[in-house]
Each structure stands twice: as C-alpha cells, then as structure tokens.
C-alpha cells in the first residue's frame, strides 16, 4: 500500500510540474496583471500617415485612452473603448495569456470572449510582441504590411491606478 501511495504522489507531482508555467512566463503574467491605459498607437518602418482598424474592432484613434484590465486568476480581462465620433464605445471581454516564442521572446496573446467566457471569435486571436514590460509601462508591437510594405504597429501603455 505504501509503494502505491508513493507512486501516486510522484505521478501527481510530475503532472503538476509539467503543467506549470516557466519562470519568464510567470514574471510577464505577474507584470501584466492589473489596469492599463493605452496612451497611443504609433507606426514605424514606413513613412506617411496611417489610419487603421485594430483587432478587427475600431480605428486606432478610438484605442487611444482605452482602459485595459488583465485578471490573473482565470486569464480573462477586458478593454473599454471611450465614446468618440467614429468609435463604437463599450467593453470587450478577452481571454489572454503570454506565449513564449523562444529565444527569449514573448508575446501577449488574446481572443474575444462573451460574458460567460465562451470564445466568440472562432478560435481566432491576436499576438503582440512584448517589447517593454515593467510595473509602470508596457510597450507591445506587431508587424504587418501596408500595400505590400512592412510596417510595425506599436502600442504604448501606462499602468492605471
């Protein structure tokens, strides 16, 4: 009986350790949790003025000043678009995580969910490279193309109290 008990404990420990997050992932998650303000969206790598629809939702101008919340306990959160002339205001619910790309690079990934935490995007989501992340600021970016030319969309956040 004792041998079976020891085997069971070792099996449980093995399963628990294989499901745990890496140290880097835990650090990023801990730093992301909380309230953030998306101060501005900028573009690098190409010249000109850009206006874009972000996350298949609203224009980049509507995201400036938006409130973001990341909950750790169940990996859910939301962002709220403020009222504006061309902005569809309101709160969008998300499920988020940190994805480790390898070679020390990590990304914030999220997808849209409803109030009952069900996926509403057919499994489709977004990944943003984590450029800067500390207790006061977060900078994320994603690479895309405009008329065949590469461009980087940069998101500048500050911690909200």
- The strand line-up of the biggest sheet is 1-4-5-6-7-8-9-10
Global outline: globular
**Total domains, how many?**
1
Structural class, judged by helices and strands? alpha+beta
Question: Any descriptors?
Answer:
161 residues, two-stranded antiparallel ribbon, 10 strands, alpha+beta, Lipocalin, Lipocalin-like domain-containing protein, eight-stranded antiparallel β-barrel, globular, 3 helices, single chain
Structure at a glance:
By secondary structure, this protein is α+β, with helices and mostly antiparallel strands. It has helices at residues 2-19, 23-32, 60-63, and strands at residues 34-44, 53-54, 58-59, 66-70, 76-81, 90-102, 105-113, 126-133, 137-146, 149-159.
Question: What does this protein structure show overall?
Answer:
With 161 residues, the protein is an alpha+beta fold. The protein has one domain (21-159): Lipocalin, CATH 2.40.128.280. It is built from three helices and ten strands. Strands 1-4-5-6-7-8-9-10 form an eight-stranded antiparallel β-barrel. A two-stranded antiparallel sheet has the order 2-3. Strand 8 (126-133) and strand 9 (137-146) form a beta hairpin. The chain is globular, with a radius of gyration of 19 Å. Residues 13-20 have low confidence and may be disordered. Residues 32-140 form the Lipocalin-like domain. It comes from Sinomicrobium pectinilyticum. InterPro entries: Lipocalin-like.
